[in-house]
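Handout, page 2. Input:
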Amino acid sequence: MSGETVASHSAMRPWTLRRAMRREGLSFSAVQSRFAKGRAQRLLSESDARVEESARSLGHKDSRRFRRTFNRWTGVSSYRCRRPQRGSKDLCPGGTEPR
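Output:
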């Protein structure tokens, strides 16, 4: 989703949104990345989908690239964050909340 799309959904002009985010010390790309990380963590930890299927549903054409990005975001492999088996501990850092 682009900044222009978010601005229009928020009934703001794009430059007003950028100015407001700058005032808060945020960048659109950082917010977008945080949102994507949270979605990935939730999908992996709450569904039975394979990592490759999760990557595709999150808009990644290449699951290897998704796995590398996920590892950079969290410090653990995407496989460790997959839905824990019954009785096992959740190994995904930060649970299902984005950092």
